[in-house]
């Protein structure tokens, strides 16, 4: 037993790890994760690019470097004017003296990361601090042959980066980048002024340089260039200092994207899987996660999806129940017709045959009435969904409905129909046809159960404040009362079921389909209201008749 347990546990742990890795891989490779991550990285790339541009184009740093180089170049130029310029017959720069001055000063005033150059009046280089100090430069050359793919890609990236950097520079800075040290010396001697700027060296490195003319009085006898090569090193140091922050920002971005994917994509995937199960379930109920702990849009989606699925299942159940009820109700008259038709040829006399024919005719009419009511009930949802709601003055609507009532329905038995209530506008949003059918069905039922000479009262009133949808806007209540025998207490709710019939004494069997009150409830529910039945009590406490009450939401404020 112990060995079996030990064997199963590693397998279970391994299966759990594989399933977790598969879910993690599915999350990382999901489209929403890629989009969120790319959006985050795009913002990060722009931020990093801005940091690089700011770090590389800090004018304060370059300005300070130029000021320092100008001071050093000015010192060398002044010493050259004092010690290396021959005045007769015309001002001329003594090459040997200039080299000696630079040799002595380079040990103290020319650091390793800088360089001093001296040009004569013909822009010929006569002294170089690095050559004078015997400095040797070592640079690794690329291997012979064509550049590899990596080098080509690096060159392309460098070219693109240089283009981005040039966008942030003005025209004077771009012009300075294109100059050489010789160009700066010629420009300084031609214009007799200092030339300052940042230019690129032969290897693409950035060089901060300052060139001053050597000018004893008015004549220019040469130029001194002082340049610094440590700008790239300073920028690289700044970039290295930023790299840990960039790495941390990238990690935070990745975790944020992963968290958002788990927070968003995972519940959506669960809902999608459940939707697939619903499609393949074949009518079997599949529980849908409601995501009750989510208060955001995902939670709203989960609850709406669950409610929609529940409503769909309820509708399927209702359709199945309706089909079963229809089958049962249609089977009764068909059975009666078949029995009468089988007995008809065997009838011994004409009187018996006429009776059987009347039975068949009665059942055919009953069947026709059933089919008509069933057709009306099945089209009701489509009719309510297709037609727009209208603003109805319910008081006037009911008075017009009762005024146009067919007197032949009540004249034979002397039943009167009366509308009570204040003749003031009582506004509701409703479908005129279906809501009119509700009140006609209720009045018809009341007339059917009323005694001869009785009265049916239709009363319009406001519901109590506690029963309304809002404390300041109670619903409209319409009650239809009769003076009949009332409704058994056990049947106050069952009378609204489909095909339920309870007819008064003397009423012909099968003259009603039992769908009227069911259709009434369906229409009232579609309007956001409610309908119920209750018994009226007389003075002695006994049942004085039935009352059907309809409540509808009031329109307006």
UniProtKB/TrEMBL annotation:
It catalyses: ATP + protein L-histidine = ADP + protein N-phospho-L-histidine. Residues 325-556 form the Histidine kinase domain. CDD domains: HAMP, HisKA. It holds the Pfam family HisKA. The chain crosses the membrane at residues 36-55, 246-266. InterPro entries: HAMP_dom, HATPase_C_sf, HATPase_dom, His_kinase_dom, HisK_dim/P_dom, HisK_dim/P_sf, Sensor_TM1, Sig_transdc_His_kin-like_C. SMART domains: HAMP, HATPase_c, HisKA. Residues 262-317 form the HAMP domain. One of its GO terms (cellular component) is membrane. Its EC number is 2.7.13.3. The keyword Kinase applies. GO terms for molecular function: phosphorelay sensor kinase activity. It is found in: Membrane. It comes from the Bacteria. Keywords: Kinase, Membrane, Phosphoprotein, Transferase, Transmembrane, Transmembrane helix, Two-component regulatory system. It is an enzyme of class 2 (transferase). This is histidine kinase. It comes from Marinicauda algicola. The lineage of its organism: Bacteria, Pseudomonadati, Pseudomonadota, Alphaproteobacteria, Maricaulales.
């Amino acid at each position: 037993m112990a060995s079996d347990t030990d064997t199963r546990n590693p397998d279970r742990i391994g299966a759990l790890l594989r399933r977790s890795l598969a879910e993690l891989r599915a999350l990382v490779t999901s489209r929403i994760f890629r989009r969120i991550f790319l959006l985050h990285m795009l913002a990060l790339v722009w931020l990093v690019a801005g940091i690089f541009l700011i770090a590389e184009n800090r004018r304060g740093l370059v300005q300070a470097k130029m000021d320092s180089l100008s001071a050093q170049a000015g010192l060398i130029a002044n010493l050259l004017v004092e010690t290396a310029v021959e005045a007769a017959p015309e001002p001329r720069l003594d090459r040997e003296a200039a080299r000696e001055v630079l040799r002595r000063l380079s040990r103290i005033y020319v650091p390793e990361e800088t360089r001093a150059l001296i040009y004569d009046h013909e822009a010929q280089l006569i002294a170089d601090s690095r050559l004078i100090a015997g400095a040797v430069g070592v640079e690794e050359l690329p291997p012979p042959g064509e550049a590899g793919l990596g080098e080509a890609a690096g060159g392309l990236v460098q070219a693109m980066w240089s283009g981005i950097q040039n966008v942030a520079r003005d025209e004077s800075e771009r012009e300075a980048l294109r100059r050489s040290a010789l160009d700066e010396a010629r420009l300084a001697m031609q214009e007799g002024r200092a030339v300052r700027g940042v230019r690129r060296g032969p290897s693409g490195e950035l060089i901060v340089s300052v060139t001053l003319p050597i000018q004893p009085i008015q004549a220019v006898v040469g130029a001194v260039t002082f340049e610094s090569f440590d700008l790239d090193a300073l920028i690289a140091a700044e970039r290295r200092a930023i790299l840990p922050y960039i790495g941390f920002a990238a990690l935070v971005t990745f975790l944020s994207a992963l968290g958002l994917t788990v927070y968003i994509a995972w519940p959506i995937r669960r809902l999608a899987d459940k939707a697939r199960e619903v499609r393949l379930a074949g009518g079997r109920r599949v529980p849908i996660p409601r995501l009750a702990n989510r208060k955001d849009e995902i939670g709203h989606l989960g609850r709406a999806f669950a409610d929609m699925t529940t409503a769909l299942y309820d509708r399927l159940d209702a359709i199945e129940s309706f089909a079963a009820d229809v089958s049962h109700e249609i089977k009764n008259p068909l059975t009666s017709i078949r029995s009468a038709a089988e007995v008809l040829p065997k009838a011994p006399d004409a009187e018996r045959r006429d009776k059987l024919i009347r039975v068949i005719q009665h059942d055919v009419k009953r069947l026709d009435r059933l089919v008509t009511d069933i057709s009306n009930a099945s089209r009701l949802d489509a009719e309510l969904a297709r037609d727009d709601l209208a603003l109805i003055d319910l008081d006037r609507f009911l008075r017009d409905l009762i005024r146009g009532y067919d007197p032949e329905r009540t004249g034979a038995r002397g039943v009167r129909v009366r509308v009570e209530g204040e003749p003031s506008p009582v506004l509701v949003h409703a479908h005129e046809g279906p809501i009119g059918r509700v009140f006609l069905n209720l009045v018809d039922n009341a007339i059917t159960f009323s005694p001869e000479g009785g009265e049916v009262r239709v009363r319009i009133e406001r519901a109590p404040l506690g029963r309304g949808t809002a404390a300041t806007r109670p619903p409209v209540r319409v009650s239809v009362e009769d003076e009949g025998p009332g409704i058994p207490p056990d049947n106050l709710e069952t009378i609204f079921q489909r095909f339920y019939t309870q007819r008064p004494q003397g009423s012909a069997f099968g003259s009603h389909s039992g769908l009227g009150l069911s259709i009434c409830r369906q229409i009232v529910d579609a309007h956001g209201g409610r309908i119920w039945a209750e018994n009226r009590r007389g003075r002695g406490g006994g049942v004085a008749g039935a009352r059907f009450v309809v409540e509808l939401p009031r329109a307006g404020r």
